Amino acid sequence: MTLATELGYRLVEEFKADPYRITKYLEELYERVERIEPRVRAFITLRPLDEVVKEVEERIKRGDTEGPLFGLAVAVKDNICTRGIRTTCASRMLENFVPPYDATVIERLRRAGAVIIGKTNMDEFAMGSTTETSAFYPTRNPWNLDRVPGGSSGGSAAALAAGMATLALGSDTGGSIRNPAAFTATYGLKPTYGLVSRFGLVAYASSLDQIGPMARCVEDLAMLLSAISGHDPRDSTSLDAPPRDYLRLLREEWSREPRLRIGIARNLVEGSEEGVRRCVERALDALCSYHDCEDVEIPYPRHAVAAYYIVAMAEASSNLARYDGVRYGIEVGVEGRSWVEVFKEARTRGFGYEVRKRIALGAYVLSAGYRDAYYVKALRFRRLLKERLYGLFRRLDAIATPTMPILPPRLGELVSDPIRMYLSDVCTVIANLVGIPAISVPAGFSDGLPVGLQLMAPALEEVRLLYLAKFLQESLGFRNLVAEVV
Ligand code: GLN
After folding, report:
1. What is the number of the ligand 1 atom nearest to the C-alpha of 424?
2. Is 225 within 8 Å of 213 (Cβ atoms)?
3. Side-chain half-sphere exposure of 68, counting CA atoms within 13 A
4. Which domain holds residue 101?
């Protein structure tokens, strides 16, 4: 195995012994990128190799090599602000936006010694499930180039699956980390709402958004989560939780081998495509051969999708109001024109169709006369769902579902059918609405296409999810899967 496709937690050990191995690792990684990226297109911005190598070598010279992620190449979703590196949200609106500051997660990654190699493609402003609403180009699934890698963090997932990055960051408002993780046979975690700071994340729907780790094994996921999580006074929704070493906690839990009570969301399994169901059942057999499983029903899954889209669009219509072409956004001529003309041109040229549609629908559900019928009702449903789920958690440690009810679709298949696209989020939106952590684990392949299994747990039980994910990783053997892109 080349260094480029080795796992992160192994690499850090190797680099500790000889930090100059990092140069070789980065060279090998960029060789892969050069060979594979033209076909996959996971990145929007890629930093040049010599710049990245120089950054690492300078740190070695300074003796600044102690960070827990020292030398590891991280791909960052392009809605997370990086000082001096363009951050576009895959939108014409921010095509030339170079942030003057780092997001908190980026500051923490740099402090941990990680190297940011580039910014990854995504659905425009994270609105989508396939990475096809990107204003630039779609990303392709490294396991099958005719298929989408999922979304909206599709670039991050594809970079991992193709061995073009060791770790990656995504954001998850309704499934955007877990969906692409499932579609690319990688691991992705949406943390508890408030565990990871959102300072510097371009907001989509603030009551749902969460940044999270993506990787090719559970250990790397845990390591990355430790680096990015913890209280941040600059995010008012940040929880006052002390920093934790998730890799150590995972190993402790692993050696204790607790037998957990797991609810199988039978209705969501039954509602999935056959190929998905087969893989998920096999993974569940492995899980339930040791843990205590019982069938449960997730209440009102279709209502959850409706409530999610109402809340997400309402918040998006407010969050995206700032892109007016004056303070933010693409520049349009202002000389001698009314503000209405300027705003209209900026927002028509700057936003793609999906974003404009959501702003319009979001404004509609908030408008006088419709607010109670849609927005307030969705909020009420959200509270009900939370009560019901916590009701289940009174006797269950975790709930298992498929991550996605469908196999990775062909390019063009899902975006052209918005209702089907929105419904495909049925398993993932629950965790966002309720604010709980959820993880996607590779569960197998159907016709060569990856399938993911999702586990949800009560707030702040990330260690439990990592433990169960590792249980599956060891039983099924899906770790460090790298697609040979052909
Ligand atoms: N597919 C969902 C949406 O379009 C989720 C996106 C996300 O999590 N950012 O809203």
Report:
1. 1
2. yes
3. 15
4. 3-256
